[in-house]
Structures are given as structure tokens and as C-alpha cells.
Design brief:
The structure is a homodimer.
Chain A lengths: L1 H23 L17 H24 L4 H13 L16 H21 L2 H6 L1 H26 L5 H9 L6 H10 L6 H32 L6 H35 L5 H19 L4 H11 L6 H6 L6 H22 L11 H17 L12 H7 L4 H13 L1 E2 L2 E2 L3 H28 L1
Helix pairs in contact in A: 2-3, 2-14, 3-14, 4-12, 4-14, 6-7, 6-9, 6-15, 7-9, 8-9, 8-18, 9-10, 9-16, 10-11, 10-12, 11-12, 15-18, 16-18, 17-18
Chain lengths: ~450, ~450
């Protein structure tokens, strides 16, 4: 004991000496004499990551306190950070374009779609059958047509392809938000719940196909190639084909991979092989001309719990993949949403017509999904609840919009600041109104 | 049930159709028409990450099977991937320089040092008292002098600073490897175990100070400034000063941060705030002219379990920080070691004298640490066991060497291919011989 206490006293003296030395050393001659050995670009990355993580959590907590979805808070934190220039503070402007941070965000969105894929499963997708498929098809087509109409009315002089792209951002229901609300109300297994979840999964896939088609047509038009029906059919075939091959070959690959990994000694096999699998399928999707997120979703869809039971049994805490992925997505997914928010240019709202465009786009998004009610077959189902449950757009709409920002048509960005700002408003409003509306309808039933 | 089965049949047909569509779509006209919308640089990143993760685990598993440390297997996998050019395969050459992958590796090594810091604690550091400090000081000084001597004898025409840098790579004992061997033998709390672990922590800090001093002197010399004793003293003061301030202010900051975070609603607070804290202190270390890893270690050292008890209690599984960080480091730490291995140029061994240099450097590393035995005060302690326990160099030696590769002196890299190859051999051999030697000595006692 004496030795311990003596050690502590020594250590305290050492602190004091150190603090004094630190204060003494603060001469300008010393300004970063050793910076040469830090990988030169890591410091901005570290600062940006620390700031983004804290802002995301603060924004999320603030929204959570008012019973609003966390994801909106992260988005709002990003909008705030990205628009400090409006009040004259430009210290963070460089943060928007740190390529490493963007890469982290991209990996984050892969993790998100991988987890959505893991949470969905092919059996459930099939079990809800025809109703879910019809709901999904109507829920993709009607909002897309309405979005096309709104865009045509507001954005003059743009190519029809741009209008179709705007329509495409209205297609996909956010599985995450819907699932969370249904879970909170313990209605996940109700008939309405199963139809909504099944349809949300299917319309994710349909939305990704729509995205592939529209993006492909834009890329073709941009390269000066003509719009041709064969090309369209081939793109659709390719998109469905990739998913089909990914599903069939991916199930086999997943089973084989984890059976092999289970024979290897050592720890941490489950996370590494699951991530490698996700990255590989995402890479293949990209090579096949689809967005890498399609691959990540497919990887999650085909990876089933039974494939890795042997590996899970070896884990000291018997953690499943979702539990292991949670810290990874907890780190990187907020980076994606904060960066998404940061790319919203609030100054765009000053442009005449943007607010009206955003309002009509949001209306198209909400009303368009009410067509889903017509897709429900048989009786005893609360059709309005299904329509309301399909409203939230969330992350997929934002991902579509962010992809649109990387596409150009006749030298202009397909998703310009106006469209992007309007899509963010649409996502925010649809995400915001769904929880109260769905709670009201389901509690009433 | 009928509906489910019908759904499955439909789904199977859908697969078949999809596969056919996929096969039909494989025309050259379709080659990646949609690639425009994938963030253009993500595909190489995804491919590299998938390959690195799998190779790391395969290498680790192979070494584990022969009862060798996993980290060596990851290194070996990297050496293999990085030297496929020797057998005429250059397909992976571009992988070495994907900046995003390098950034992931850098974040990985931060996680590693953060976890080492978390595993150490200031109380234990103080409790082992004078013995550990003496053991650490001897274990830093003697290998450094021997390394300087070996480098002087072998590397003709180099600046003395280069020789000191080579000496510096021999200083730091790998806490991780030592701790793992002691834990496997259940000797962590024995008197020898506590002295070794305490000394390993202290010599990490001493090693980082030595690194800061030598790097600072090299940077000064490179900028044409003279070697001056005041500059040396100031660098030492600054290095100790940063750690002192980080320890005193960091403990307070950590307590305040997590007390604040505990009041915020929402999930995932613990991981986000811990990572933000780690990134912030690493950033500050970098801004103070130290390596960011020093900051990550300091962040782990001051972050104590009690600071986040309230947050941990809220977690559904009551996970501590180490458990939450495990998937993150499981993902990124192997990336660091594989990249380290990839930067070993096997062709360097063809240069006359490299093997002799590597052998003598390894000998200096092993014998130098036996001086530690003289630092143990009092009786009843197995001094040889302490000396053997201090042998493994592991990650810190590699980190030093990788930092040396970024430093130049008179237009040449301080750590050239020869030195780097020799350091890797030294790390591999010291890491390899310690487990059997320590097991032999402690079982005998």
C-alpha cells in the first residue's frame, strides 16, 4: 500500500512538472517541429470526424427529446454545420471536401444498406406475396409519375430525364423508419405490418432498378447515345439480373464462405468475413454498372443467420452479426447523414419557387403513396394504415439525390441545389409526419 | 402456409428469369453504362478492403494454427500481397497507394493505441512504482545504444541521426503481445507480470518521447537548423508536457464529456463520444507536433470505466467500451498490419548485407532488453522472466519504422528499404521468440 501511495505522489509531481514544461514550451520556435511524421492529411480527417460524431449525436438527441426520428437530427446538424458560412463563419468550409471523410460516409451507407438487407429476409419477402408486390409497384409508379409532373411544371427547360430522376427520388420507402415505428407499436407481425414491411423491401429493390434505369439513360444521353428501347430493356434486365445472380450465387457463396471461415482458428472471423463479403458484392455491383449500395443490400439479403452459427457459437458473448455491426454503423452511418445535411445549401431556398417546388414535391410524395391502398388484396386490412406506413422516404431518397448530384446532363448537374434542397425537405417532412399519423391510425384500429 | 409456398415458387421463377436476363445482358454494349453514379474512387477501395480483410484473416489463422501470434500472420499476408510483383503479377500494385485505404489503416492504428491506453491505467502504472520505471528506462536506453552501434557499423555514410532513429525503433516493448502471453499463462497479476506490464506501458511513453525527439531533430536538421541542446530540451519538455496536460485535462474532459453524454437520449452515445474523444486528443497531439497515436494512447489512458458507467448501464447488453471497440478494431487494425507488410520490399534482401544487418539488429533488440533485469529492485523476483517479457516489439516498432519512411534527411528517406526490411525481421523474430521463452521460464518458476 505504501508503495502504491508513494507511486501516486510521484506521479502527481510528474504531472505538475509536465504541465509547467508544457507551458514553458509554448514558444513560436516550437510550432509543430515534428509534424513531418504525421501522415499529413490525417489531422483534418481527425478534426472533421470528431466534430461530425459529436454534432450528429447532439442533433439526434435534440430531435429524440421531441420524439422525432434521430436521423432527422443528424441531417439537421449537418445542415447547420454546412451553412455556417451564411452567418460569416467559414472555418468549416474545407471540411466538406475532405476525401477521406467522404469515403468514410460511403462505407457508412454501405453498412446501413447491408444491415437493412440483413434485417430483411427472402422468406418473409415471399410470404407476404402478391399484396406486398402490388403495393410496392403502385407505391413506386404513382409517386414517380406525380414527381415527374411536379418537376415538369416547375423546372422549365430541363430534359425529361431530369424530371424522371426527380420522380425516382420519390419512389423508395425507408424500411428503417417504417420498421422502427411498427416495432415501437408492437405491430410488426400484424397483417398491415407485414404488408408494409414486405412492400417496403420490394419497393427498395424496384427503386434501385428505377435508379439504375434512369441513371443509365442519363449516362447514355450524356455520352451522346440515343434513347433506345433495347438499351432500356437491357438495363432493366441487367439490374434484375445482377440481383438474381447475387441472390442465387450469393447464398451459395455466403454459406461456403462462413463454413470455411468457421474452420479457421482465431478471433474476429465473423466481422471480417461478413464485411469482406459485403465489400465484395458491393464491388461486383459497381462493376456490373449498379450502385455499390445495391450490392450491399443484396449481400445482407442473402447472408442468413444459419450460415454463421458455427462462428457465432465460438464468440465469447454469442453476438450475432447485427450486434457486431452496430458499433461500426454507429460510427460511420451518422457521418453519412451529417455529410448529406452539409451538402444542403440553405441559400438555395432564397431562389424564387424553391419552397413551392419543395411543398408540391412533398405533397406528391405523400399522396402518391396513398395509391398503395389499392394494391392490398382481400378484406380485413386497414388500407389507410398501409398507405400511411409507406410514406417515409428517409435514407434511400437522400442516397438517390446524392447520386443525382454526381450525374451531369448537357454539362449541368441532374440534381442541382434547388432539386437537392427540395428532396431534403421532402425526406424530412415525410419522415416527420409518418410516426404521428401511423400511431394515430393503428391505435384507432 | 399455402401462400408462403406459392410465394417461394414465384420467387424461384423470378430467380430463374433473372439469371437468364443476366446472361442475355452480357453484351459489350452494356459494359458499365451506369458507372457514372458510383463515387468514382470507391470501387478500388472496396476491392482492396475485401482482399485485405480476407488475406489478414487467412494469414492470421495460418499462424495461429502453428501457435504463432496472429499479428505476424497479418504481416506475412501483407508481405505476400505486396511482393507478388516478384513472380510477375502486378495486378495489385495499384492497391498499395489507394489513399482511402491508407487512411483506414491510420484510423486502425489509432484504435489499436486507444485500446492499449484503455487497457492500461494510471493507478497500475503508479503502483508498480520504481522497479517498472527503472526496467523501462534501461529497456529503452540499452537497446537504443546497441541499435545505434549496429546501424553505425552497417550503414556507412549516413547521418548519426539516422542511426539514432534505427536505435529508436528498438525501444518500445509491445504491450499487446506481452499482455496476451501473460494472460494466457494467468500470470498477469504476478509480481513479474505487473512489473513487465508497468514497464511496457512506461517504455511506450518513453519510446514515443524518444521518437518525438529524434524525429524533431531530423526535421530541424532537414530544415537546415542546427542541432541545439535547447531545442532538444524543448522537444522533450513538449512531449512530456503534452502527455501531462493530456492526462490532467483529459481526465477532466473525459469525465465531463461522458457525464454530459449520459444526459442525452438516444442509442450509440458511448461509441460516438469515445471515438470523438479519441480523435480529438489525437488531433491535438498532432497539432502539438506529436504523432497522433500518442494522443490516441493518452485518450485511452485517461478514459476510465467509471466515467461512462451511466452510459453503459443504458446499453441493452451492458457492453463496455472494449467490447464495443472490438468490431471496429477487428475491421481496421488488420488493414494497418497488412499495409505494413505490403510496404516490405522483399527485393531489398537481395542487397548484400541486409540479412546480416537484420540479424544483428534482432540480436541488439533481444540482448538489449536483458539489461532490464538490472532494474528490478528487491528480492523474490524472477529477473530473467522480466527480461524475456520485455523482448517483443510488435506494432510500436513497425509504427516507428513507418514514420521513419515519411521522414527525409538530405533528400533521402531516413528509413530506407534496407532498414525497413531489417526492422520487420526484428519485429517478427522478437515477437516470435517471446511466447515460447516466457512460457518456458514462467512454468519453470
Amino acid at each position: 500500500m505504501h508503495r502504491i501511495r508513494k507511486g501516486r505522489v510521484e506521479l502527481r509531481c510528474w504531472y505538475l512538472g509536465a504541465v509547467v514544461a508544457w507551458l514553458l514550451s509554448a514558444g513560436p520556435a516550437l510550432a509543430a517541429p515534428v509534424t513531418g511524421h504525421a501522415a499529413p492529411d490525417m489531422l483534418p480527417v481527425l478534426a472533421a470526424l470528431a466534430l461530425i460524431l459529436v454534432s450528429a449525436r447532439l442533433g439526434g438527441a435534440l430531435f429524440e427529446r421531441f420524439q422525432l426520428p434521430t436521423v432527422l437530427g443528424e441531417l439537421a446538424a449537418g445542415v447547420l454545420l454546412g451553412n455556417l458560412g451564411l452567418v460569416g463563419f467559414h472555418g468549416l468550409d474545407s471540411m466538406r471536401t475532405v476525401p477521406t471523410v467522404e469515403a468514410f460516409a460511403q462505407i457508412g451507407v454501405l453498412f446501413l444498406l447491408f444491415q437493412v438487407g440483413l434485417a430483411s429476409d427472402i422468406g418473409k419477402l415471399a410470404a407476404v406475396g402478391l399484396s406486398a408486390t402490388l403495393v410496392a409497384v403502385l407505391g413506386v409508379m404513382v409517386p414517380m409519375l406525380l414527381g415527374f409532373g411536379v418537376s415538369t411544371a416547375f423546372l422549365h427547360g430541363q430534359s425529361p430525364l431530369t424530371h424522371w430522376f426527380v420522380g425516382a427520388t420519390l419512389t423508395a420507402t425507408s424500411v428503417g423508419i417504417t420498421a422502427r415505428v411498427l416495432g415501437d407499436l408492437k405491430r410488426t407481425t400484424s397483417i398491415e405490418g407485414r404488408i408494409i414491411l414486405g412492400a417496403a423491401v420490394i419497393d427498395d429493390v424496384l427503386g434501385l432498378i428505377v435508379l439504375a434505369v434512369v441513371s443509365g439513360l442519363i449516362a447514355a444521353a450524356n455520352a451522346g447515345r440515343a434513347f433506345d428501347a433495347t438499351g432500356l430493356a437491357l438495363i432493366v434486365a441487367k439490374a434484375i439480373g445482377f440481383l438474381g445472380v447475387a441472390v442465387v450465387a450469393g447464398r451459395w457463396l455466403s454459406r461456403v464462405t462462413f463454413r470455411f471461415a468457421a474452420r479457421l482458428p482465431g478471433e474476429g472471423m465473423l466481422v471480417s468475413f461478413a464485411l469482406a463479403f459485403c465489400f465484395l458484392v458491393s464491388f461486383l455491383a459497381g462493376r456490373a454498372g449498379l450502385a455499390p449500395i445495391v450490392g450491399a443490400f443484396a449481400a445482407g439479403l442473402v447472408l442468413e443467420d444459419v450460415h454463421y452459427q458455427a462462428l457465432r457459437a465460438r464468440d465469447a458473448k454469442k453476438r450475432d452479426l447485427n450486434e457486431l455491426l452496430e458499433p461500426l454503423s454507429g460510427f460511420l452511418v451518422p457521418v453519412f447523414f451529417v455529410l448529406m445535411g452539409m451538402s444542403v445549401n440553405l441559400a438555395a431556398f432564397a431562389t424564387p419557387g424553391v419552397l413551392g417546388f419543395a411543398a408540391l414535391l412533398t405533397l406528391a410524395a405523400v399522396l402518391g403513396k396513398q395509391a398503395c391502398a389499392a394494391g392490398v388484396l382481400g378484406g380485413g386490412v386497414d388500407r389507410l394504415a398501409v398507405g400511411l406506413g409507406m410514406i417515409p422516404r428517409g435514407e434511400v431518397g437522400l442516397i438517390f439525390a446524392s447520386i443525382g448530384r454526381t450525374l451531369t446532363l448537357n454539362g449541368e448537374r441532374v440534381v442541382n441545389d434547388t432539386v437537392y434542397a427540395a428532396v431534403v425537405v421532402m425526406v424530412a417532412v415525410t419522415t416527420l409526419v409518418t410516426p404521428p399519423l401511423l400511431v394515430w391510425r393503428l391505435r384507432r384500429g
